[in-house]
Structure formats: structure tokens, C-alpha cells
Design goal:
Layout: H1 2-33, H2 37-49, H3 58-80, H4 82-85, H5 89-95, H6 102-119, H7 124-134, H8 141-155, H9 173-193, H10 203-212, H11 214-226, H12 232-250, H13 253-266, H14 269-274, H15 276-282, H16 292-309, H17 314-319, H18 322-336, H19 342-359, H20 364-378, H21 387-404, H22 407-411, H23 416-420, H24 425-442, H25 449-458, H26 460-463, H27 476-489, H28 498-512, H29 520-537, H30 554-566, H31 574-590, H32 594-610, H33 615-631, H34 637-651, H35 657-667, H36 682-707, H37 714-729, H38 736-751, H39 759-778, H40 780-787
Helix pairs in contact: 1-2, 1-3, 2-3, 2-6, 3-6, 5-6, 6-7, 6-8, 7-9, 8-9, 8-11, 9-11, 9-12, 11-13, 12-13, 13-16, 15-18, 16-19, 18-19, 19-20, 19-21, 21-24, 24-27, 25-28, 27-29, 28-29, 29-30, 29-31, 30-31, 31-32, 31-33, 32-33, 33-34, 33-35, 34-35, 35-36, 35-37, 36-37, 37-38, 37-39, ...
Organism: Salvia divinorum (Maria pastora)
InterPro entries: ARM-type_fold (IPR016024), Vps35 (IPR005378), Vps35_C (IPR042491)
Membrane topology: Peripheral membrane protein
Length: 793
């Protein structure tokens, strides 16, 4: 209730003040219109007396001040026109000093002073010195600040600067600088003193009010930066030391932070670079609570932008040792601010690293030094759990990846993994994903086993369970994405030298084999295919394995592959392991290694017998075995017979009759391989096809018994197509009469009383007949062959 009363009172006081200004402004305008100087001075002094109030907050006082300011601009125009009031400016300067109250007197004096300087009847420096000294008479913080702000405003375009019309004899740039610096110093003292104006209980409110007035003080630094005559030498020897002295001596957190920020923002980057030591030396002397991380971060950002836009200036950065100066300054700030939170310290080093990467990208020792400093900060502390701090560490570790577009460069930084060790398990994984995405995006090849070792140490959060997190607690979708990324990563590890490539594969295997049953199904296939790619490159080499130092040979790699695929038994993932064994068998076939290929097929059959229980999985598996076996040509008669016998035997033992039928007729291809001499056993092909027909027939009868109607003739049409295939390939056992008989059988089945109309199988059969007709009409040798097949109506 008291607060609302205070606000109402303030509004009332402001309204009274505005009313007073408006009332006197009315008479002032009348006096100006009638060119009555005495009346104009009288009412302007009364109008300005309203600014003597102490009851308004800075925000409300500003409203009042702006009303008065507008009237002063009008008054200044009147003062300039001597023919209107008939009083020389020097006399006018004396006259206004007779105003009764100090505040109106000084406002009028500043207004006339502005006109006096413009008249050039006296040196600008003398008038400015006179005004800045006289303003000391007002020591009330708010009233004094606004008065000096007015002085800065009216004098800013009348400073004796180089090239300025007010650069008279003896008037130098130094006079302009001294005037602005003196006004700045006095304003800052008033601004700092504001904090002691009210009761301690309203400290927060006072700080907020002070913050609103900061631009009045900062404007002086902006004016300084606009003075043309301030060259680097003057800035280094006079301006910067004076401003820093005031900042350090005021011992006020708000003022120090704001003014340091002002210096960085308003003065040229070139000056900052050349005065870096002076500027940075002030930082440890500031109050411990000043937010120096933001100040230094902004300075480094300014300098790095400057370097990016002016690459020709990079030698200057080395010459002034910018990196070491910034690095030392950060170290001293850490010592001075012992309570600085980890997030603040790390964010400082993120800025330093960004600066280093942009200004000295070739200096990896600098980059590693920054990372080393972060390790020092983090060591001795528990794993980071502060989300802001971990975010900063991720930014720190991501910066080199973004800059170099090449993980290999980051892998040479000795402190990189040491920083990652301080992350909690969750963030460690996030960072590991950032690393992998960087490699994939930039297509960075990692080409030595040593670098692969470092890389997999960095991403260990994805390839094994870290402390405190088990795979059971993970979100399945995230987990799958992570593991797929690791699998993709394996294809970015490559070296043209087979020896080194084998070392890389062994290094990866060492890391991923302890990944646990959930990870292995993702990582093993990628590793197997990387190894098989190496095998293909080594095709034809057949050295025996006898010790560690033996060169990379297919045999040695196949032994490793056997171990790798065996680990899938802990998952268990029999279908995946079976597919990988068959891939290895095919590769061994291409290397002409019969015993190795046979061993892989044996492993596949063992898995099929003992592990693959699901009927659908069995169907898929047996077709994979048949397809692979058909492509393999390395086996002698005995081994091939053993394997084909196994395949046909398992085909006939599948659970469902249609699956049996299809697997058995697929086996017919094992005895007739078109692109290869030797395997063209027409009789066994016919046996397979007849056997599949019997099974199809049994399936039809079973459907008849169980459902009261015969099923579709799809199986028969599929078998007919197999007959046609071998008929065309020249299998002597497959004759036109056999095909004729099968066509008649299908037609009979379709016309029987129990037949169910099935559009799919009917269309399939019609298409097959159309194909036969097409071959008959085509003529030539194939046409003659088909000619004896009668399709009938």
C-alpha cells in the first residue's frame, strides 16, 4: 500500500513540476516573441527552478528535464540573435550569472556559453574550462548528472578538435580531451554517489535507478571516441590511463562493469590491440563482483572480428603477443575472483579459444594451452552437473571441430580427451555425437590406428556403459540413433596400407567388443564389412599366419572375423550372425580359400540348427544359405555335395508346406549354375522340381481337407516358371512334354469343383501362358523349342 502511495505521490509531484514549467514557458514564449531579454531571463530562471526538486526518481526527473531542455533550445536560438535582444554575448555571459539559484544559473550559463563559443569572441577552451569548473557547484547526484549531461550535449559540437572551426590559436585537441575527461570524471563520481542517497532497504531500487542513468555517463566516452585529434599515441598515453584510473578508483561494481564495456564498444579495435596490456592490467584491480567474463569475452570477440575482417593485420596480433596477454589476464582475473563459478571460468576460455581459432588457427599449441587451462579448472572437482557449465564445455570442445573441419587436427590436441573426461555421462555422449557428426559432415578420414585409439577414447560414452548409466535406462530411439552413428563412423576409418588398416580394425574391435549385448548388433556388422573390404583388396594373397608381425593376409583377417561374429552369441542374434557368416563365406570363396569358406558355411548351418527357431526366420535363413551357396564355386565335389544335401534337407523340413515347396525348388539352382562349367546336373534339378511338385500337391490336398476347397494354384505356376527357366537353359531332363503335362495339371486344378477363384494366381498363370505364346511366335531356335508346347484354348 505504501509503495502505491509513493508512486501516486511521485506522479503528483511530476505533474506539479510539468505544470510549473508550462506556466513559465508560456510567459517565456511571450517574452521571446517581444524580444524582451529581461523577462526572458526571469521566466527561464523560474522555469528551470522546477529542476531543483529532490522528490522525483531519475526516471521521472528525466521527463521533467526533457520539458526544460526543449525550452532551453528555444532560448539558445534567441541568445544567438543579438539583434533581437541587443546585448553582446560577453555581457550576456555575465548577466545570466545573476540568477538567484545556482541550478537555473548554471543551465543558463551553459546555454549562453554554447552561444559564446559559437561567436568565437573568446577561446573555446577557456569557456569550456570555466563551465566545467562552475558545474562543481551542484553536488546533488541526480541534479548534477543531468546538468553535466546538458553541458556535454551543448558542447559536443564545439570542441577545439582538429579540423573543427573552434580550433583556434593555442586551442588544442588536448584542451578538448581534458574538458571531456573532467566532465566524465565528475559525472562518474556523482553517479557512484547515488547509491548512498536513500535508505539501505531501498538499495535494489536505487541500483535499478542508477542503471537507468548510466548512458548519461557513458555518453562522455562516446564523445571522446569521436574526437578526430585523438590518435593512438594520445589514446595510449592520456585518454585510456585517465579513464581507467577513474574506473578503478570509483570502486563501484555497476560503474566499473558498464564503463569497461563502454571503452571496449566505443574506441577503435586497432587502439585496443595496441593498448591491450594497459586495458587488461585494470581487470584484476576491479571489484571482485564485477562480471569480467562478459567484459573480456566482448573484448576478445571484437578483436577476433577485427582480425577476420583484416587478415593483413594478423602479424600485428603476433607482434603484440595478444594471445599470451589475454591468457595471462584471464589467469589473473581467476586469482582475483577466487569465487568465480566454473561456468564463468569456462566461458572465458571459450571466448579465448574462439579468439585463438580465428586469429591464430595454425597455432595448435595455443589451442591445446587453452584446453589445458580448462583441465586445471575442472580437475579436483566432481563431474560437471551444472547444465550451463556443461553447455560451455561442449561449446569449448566443439569449437576446434567447427574450425578445422577435420577431426584429425582435434585428435592431435593432448588436452582434448582430458577435458572430455570431466563431463558427466550424458554430456559425454552428446559431445561424442558432435564429434561423429563433424566427421560425417566433413567426410574426414581417420587413417592411423593411433588416431583411431584417441577417437574411440573420446566417444567411449557411446560404445560402452559409463558409470551411473546402463543401457536399460536409455531411450530406445536415442540409443538406436547413437549406435547407428557409431556404425557409420567405422566406414570413415581407412588406410591404403593393408597393415595399418588391419591395425585400425583390431583397435576398433578392442573398443567395441565390451559394448554389451545391446550395442553389438549395431557395431559388429559395420566392423565385419570394413574387414571384408580389406579382404577384397588383398584377394589372391595367401600367406600363413604365424605370429603377431605377420603381414595382413585374408586368412588372418578371416580368423579375426570368426572371433568378431562369435561375440553375437551373447546377444543372442543368430539371424544376424548367420548373414555375416554367409558374407564371409562368399569373400573366402573369392579369395579361393575352400577350407575357410566351408568353415563359415558350417557355422551358418550350426546356427540354423541350434538357434534359429522362428519359422519365418528359418525360411529367410534357408533362402540366404541357398542363394550364397549357389554363388560359391570354390568347393570340390565332396564339400559341395555335403552342403547342398544339408540345404535341400533343411528346405524339406520347414514348417509350412508352401515354404517347403519354395525352398526345395530354389535348391534346384544349386545343381545348375549357368555361368560356370561343371555344375549342370539336370537329373538332380528335375528331382528337386518333382519333389516341390509333390509338396505343392500335398499342400493342395491339405487345404481341401481343412477348408473344404482347394487353395490357389500359385505354387504350381511358380514351379511351372522354374521348369520354363531350366527348359530355356537347355536342361535335357526338362522336356516340352513335361511342361505340357504341368500346364494341363494347373488347368485341371483351376476347373475343379473345389477350386476357389483367386485373381492373383489366375493372372500369374495367364501371364506365364502369354510368355510361352510370345516365345513360340518369336521364331528362331527358342521358338522351335517352344513350338511343341500346345496351349490349347
Amino acid at each position: 500500500m505504501m509503495i502505491s502511495n509513493g508512486i501516486e505521490d511521485e506522479e503528483k509531484w511530476l505533474a506539479e513540476g510539468i505544470a510549473g514549467i508550462q506556466h513559465n514557458a508560456f510567459y517565456l514564449h511571450r517574452a521571446l516573441d517581444s524580444n524582451n531579454l529581461r523577462e526572458a531571463l526571469k521566466y527561464s530562471a523560474q522555469l528551470l527552478s522546477e529542476l531543483r526538486t529532490s522528490r522525483l526518481s531519475p526516471h521521472k526527473y528525466y521527463e521533467l528535464y526533457m520539458r526544460a531542455f526543449d525550452e532551453l533550445r528555444r532560448l539558445e536560438i534567441f541568445f544567438k540573435e543579438e539583434d533581437r535582444h541587443g546585448c553582446p554575448v560577453i555581457d550576456l555571459y555575465e548577466l545570466v550569472q545573476h540568477a538567484g539559484n545556482i541550478l537555473p544559473r548554471l543551465y543558463l550559463l551553459c546555454t549562453v556559453g554554447s552561444v559564446y563559443i559559437k561567436s568565437k569572441e573568446a577561446p573555446a577552451k577557456d569557456i569550456l574550462r570555466d563551465l566545467v569548473e562552475m558545474c562543481r557547484a551542484v553536488q546533488h547526484p541526480v541534479r548534477g548528472l543531468f546538468l553535466r549531461s546538458y553541458l556535454a550535449q551543448v558542447s559536443r559540437d564545439k570542441l577545439p578538435d582538429i579540423g573543427s572551426e573552434y580550433e583556434g590559436e593555442g586551442d588544442t585537441v588536448m584542451d578538448a580531451v581534458e574538458f571531456v575527461l573532467q566532465n566524465f570524471t565528475e559525472m562518474n563520481k556523482l553517479w557512484v554517489r547515488m547509491q548512498h542517497q536513500g535508505p539501505h532497504s531501498e538499495k535494489e531500487k536505487l541500483e535499478k535507478e542508477r542503471n537507468e542513468l548510466r548512458d548519461l555517463v557513458g555518453k562522455n566516452l562516446h564523445v571522446l571516441s569521436q574526437i578526430e585529434g585523438i590518435d593512438l599515441e594520445m589514446y595510449r598515453d592520456t585518454v585510456l590511463p585517465s579513464v581507467l584510473e577513474q574506473i578503478v578508483n570509483c570502486k563501484d561494481e555497476l560503474a566499473q562493469y558498464y564503463l569497461m564495456d563502454c571503452i571496449i564498444q566505443v574506441f577503435p579495435d586497432e587502439y585496443h590491440l595496441q593498448t591491450l596490456e594497459t586495458l587488461l592490467s585494470a581487470c584484476p584491480q576491479l571489484q571482485p563482483t564485477v562480471d569480467l567474463k562478459t567484459v573480456l569475452s566482448q573484448l576478445m570477440e571484437r578483436l577476433s572480428n577485427y582480425a577476420s575482417l583484416n587478415p593483413e593485420l594478423l602479424p600485428e596480433f603476433l607482434q603484440v603477443e595478444a594471445f599470451s596477454k589475454l591468457s595471462n589476464a584471464i589467469g589473473k582475473v581467476m586469482e582475483a575472483q577466487v569465487d568465480m563459478p566454473v561456468v564463468g571460468a569456462i566461458s572465458l576460455y571459450v571466448s579465448l579459444l574462439t579468439f585463438t581459432l580465428r586469429v591464430h588457427p595454425d597455432r595448435l599449441d595455443y589451442v591445446d594451452q587453452v584446453l589445458g587451462a580448462c583441465v586445471k579448472i575442472l580437475s579436483g572437482k566432481p563431474k560437471l552437473e551444472d547444465s550451463k557449465a556443461t553447455k560451455q564445455v561442449v561449446a569449448l570442445l566443439s569449437a576446434p571441430l567447427d574450425k578445422y573441419d577435420d577431426i584429425v587436427t582435434a585428435l592431435t590436441l593432448s588436452n582434448y580427451p582430458r577435458v572430455m573426461d570431466h563431463l558427466d555421462a550424458g554430456t559425454n555422449k552428446v559431445m561424442a555425437m558432435v564429434i561423429i557428426r563433424s566427421i560425417m559432415k566433413n567426410k574426414s578420414w581417420v587413417s592411423t590406428s593411433d588416431k583411431v585409439e584417441v577417437l574411440f577414447e573420446l566417444i567411449k560414452g557411446l560404445i560402452q556403459d559409463l558409470e551411473g548409466i546402463s543401457t536399460d535406462e536409455l531411450d530406445e530411439e536415442d540409443f538406436n540413433e547413437e549406435q547407428n552413428s557409431v556404425a557409420c563412423l567405422m566406414h570413415m576409418l581407412h588406410n591404403d596400407d593393408p597393415e595399418e588398416m588391419l591395425k585400425i580394425i583390431c583397435t576398433v574391435w578392442k573398443h567395441v567388443k565390451s559394448g554389451g549385448p545391446k550395442r553389438l548388433p549395431f557395431t559388429v556388422p559395420s566392423l565385419v564389412f570394413s574387414a571384408l573390404k580389406l579382404v577384397r583388396r588383398l584377394q589372391g594373397q595367401d600367406g600363413d599366419v604365424g605370429g603377431e608381425e605377420v603381414p595382413a593376409t585374408p586368412k588372418k583377417i578371416f580368423q579375426l572375423l570368426n572371433q568378431i561374429i562369435e561375440t553375437l552369441s551373447v546377444v543372442p542374434a543368430p539371424e544376424l550372425a548367420l548373414r555375416l557368416y554367409l558374407q564371409c563365406a562368399e569373400a573366402a570363396n573369392d579369395c579361393d580359400l575352400e577350407p575357410v569358406a566351408y568353415d563359415f558355411f558350417t557355422q551358418a548351418f550350426v546356427l540354423y540348427e541350434e538357434e534359429v527357431a522362428d519359422s519365418k526366420a528359418q525360411v529367410t535363413a534357408i533362402h540366404l544359405i541357398i542363394g550364397t551357396l549357389q554363388r560359391v564355386n570354390v568347393f570340390g565335389v565332396e564339400n559341395r555335395d555335403t552342403l547342398t544335401h544339408k540345404a535341400t534337407g533343411y528346405s524339406a523340413k520347414l514348417l509350412k508346406k508352401p515354404d517347403q515347396c519354395r525352398a526345395v525348388y530354389a535348391c534346384s539352382h544349386l545343381f545348375w549354375v549357368d555361368d560356370q562349367d561343371g555344375i549342370k546336373d539336370g537329373e538332380r534339378v528335375l528331382l528337386c522340381l518333382k519333389r516341390s511338385l509333390r509338396i505343392a500337391n500335398a499342400a493342395q490336398q491339405m487345404t481341401n481337407v481343412t477348408r473344404g476347397s482347394s487353395g490357389p494354384v500359385t505354387l504350381f505356376v511358380e514351379i511351372l516358371n522354374k521348369y520354363l527357366y531350366f527348359f530355356e537353359k537347355g536342361n535335357p531332363q526338362i522336356t516340352a512334354s513335361v511342361i505340357q503335362g504341368l500346364i494341363e495339371l494347373i488347368k485341371t486344378e483351376m476347373q475343379s469343383d473345389n477350386a476357389v477363384v483367386n485373381p492373383v494366381s489366375d493372372a500369374f498363370f495367364t501371364s506365364t501362358l502369354r510368355y510361352i505364346q510370345f516365345q513360340k511366335e518369336k521364331g528362331g531356335a527358342m521358338g522351335e523349342k517352344y513350338d511343341s508346347i500346345k496351349l490349347g484354348g
